[in-house]
Amino acid sequence: MKTISLAEAPPEDVHRFAELVRTIGRQWPLRDPLVGEVAAESELSHSQFHVLMWLGSDGALTMGELARRACITEKTITGVVDRLERMDLVQRQRDQSDRRVVRVVLTEQGQSNHKQIESIMQGRLARFLGVLDPEDREALCRILQKFCDRIDQMATAPAPEGKESTPGA
Questions:
Q1: Is residue 168 situated within a structural domain?
Q2: Looking at 15-29, 47-61, 123-137, 144-158, which range is the least confident one?
Q3: Is 87 domain-assigned?
Q4: Spatial distance between the Cα atoms of 80 and 93, rounded to a whole number of angstroms
Q5: Neighbour-count burial of 131, counting CB atoms closer than 10 A to its CB (0-12 exposed, 13-18 middle, 19+ buried)
Q6: CATH number at residue 79
Q7: Residue 71 structural domain
């Protein structure tokens, strides 16, 4: 396995990547067609939408895990989960091995909603990726997979003394 360097990318690469992300956002505002519209159609807030999608993809998660993934505070996630519980989309369950831990899981209705939303999202992503020819889609997926694998390796690698190994550190 290749050793992962924690060296920073050159500023010109960072600038180019940031500009490409901004250009994609200007030309195809991902947040709205991929999240905003689907969330609104599902009568969910953005936070509720993200919680539903994380739980549908990864299964039961703790309140803290959900808060981190949704990029909101644990206090805020409590309200989000409360509203999703009232909608009968999620329920809280105590961890059997440690009763202090509370996990959030999708209800049957939540699983059904997740499947419907996932289907809509897949269709929209298909249109988004359809602007590329098959070879370019393959290259994009290969590069993104490599990126994800390396981030994962960095996150699990022991940190050099005095430095953190997690991305964005």
A1: no
A2: 15-29
A3: yes
A4: 16
A5: exposed
A6: 1.10.10.10
A7: 11-132
**How many domains does one find in the chain?**
1
Contact, 51 vs 104, CB < 8 A? yes
* Distance in angstroms (rounded) separating the CA atoms of residues 18 and 151: 18
The Cα 131–Cα 140 span in angstroms is: 12
3-44 pLDDT, tens digit per residue, is 555 567 788 888 888 888 777 766 665 555 567 777 777 888
Query: Which residues does 163 contact at the CB level (< 8 Å), separation at least 6?
Result: 6, 169
Asked if residue 140 belongs to a domain, the reply is no
Instruction: Name the pLDDT band for 129 (thresholds 50, 70, 90).
Output: confident
Is the CB of residue 130 less than 8 Å from the CB of residue 138?
no
